[in-house]
Amino acid sequence: QVQLVESGGGLVQAGGSLRLSCAASGRTFSSYAMGWFRQAPGKERELVAGISRSGLRTYYADSVKGRFFISRDNAKNTVYLQMNSLKPEDTAVYYCAATSRVVAGTVPLNLYDYWGQGTQVTVSS
Description:
Number of strands: 11
Strand content: over 45%
Distance between the termini: 40 Å
Structural class: mainly beta
Radius of gyration: 13 Å
Largest sheet: 7 strands, mixed
Number of helices: 0
């Protein structure tokens, strides 16, 4: 089993930046593609960014493209989400997730194997 723990959330003004971290347990971190999801009150959970096992391929939702950047350090069993130029609409609980699936595009939410507890990001105007 893999355990994921997010950190780095908080309150920030519009235009500011935050860096989220997701620390994973276990020896097989590099076997998993990773994703960052977010869920705002009353909304469905959505994929924000994804990164392949090697870190060579990334995906970003159109709403965050050019502002958010996902990266991973397999030696540290950690995946990051650097969030810049934050907007109030970025306010949500952000979740880290891991999947063993390999697909051509994005992995559906229900096929992620492990999830973190979430960290709150609030962007004020």
